[in-house]
Amino acid sequence: CRLLGMDVAMGIIRDRLSPPPVGPFSEAEVFSGLAVRLATESGARYMIVRDKYAPYGYLPSSLRGQPAIVLKPGAPRETTPTTGSRDGVTHEGTVELADDGSAALQIEQRYEGKLAISLRSALESLPEARLKDTIESRLLPQALPGARLLALDIKNLADLVAPLVLAMKIRMQGFALQRGGELVINTPFAMRLGALASLPARETPLYISEQISTRSVVRLRVNLPEGARVSTALTPLSLEDEGRIVTVRDRVEQGALVFDRVVDLPA
Predict the structure, then answer these.
(1) pTM
(2) DSSP code for 20
């Protein structure tokens, strides 16, 4: 960058996951994140460069919007940007539900940030002939147990700035469970948050690590069998707690059940 005449420096960033300092020495130690600072016309951009698949301008969740010290004469202080690739996945598509609970799904999963980085790294090491089997055996069972992958199209594998997209056609025998004269659908692609609130009140600080933190978006349209209707009351919900967000806008549209949910957990 310097050979090209660009204003570039290193910066150390206060990690949001560090415990609160108790004195001047521990206060210095919380500045543990190292990143490249690039001056641009629209302001400073911080980014990590240690990962082969990191998109331009990417910072881990715990380093966004945090105090930083620029490693140049005067050691100026500033705040890192909160923009850039989100660490998350968006599940979007349609489901054709049969009256026996089986379903045909057309899904696009869009991975961004750290999830795209790790998935691109995993896919690079796989021969093309094994891609479909590996995604069917390792990735799908986490969200859709028993699902069978009929077709797969991987988009933007080499375009690090764009989300990594898995476009899939899926067949699933037990998408809904038969119970009497009803079909019961468990929320697909649901995040398991119970471990974060196992007690009525917190007794220790809540620690959401980089491994746990993510943004999950579900936008799924379920076309119901002929004659079926949604009997459960669908109540919208919106919660926000110091940057942690849960939004539920499930609804019925033209006779179809629409799952519309966002869970955002920064580190």
Answers:
(1) 0.88
(2) P
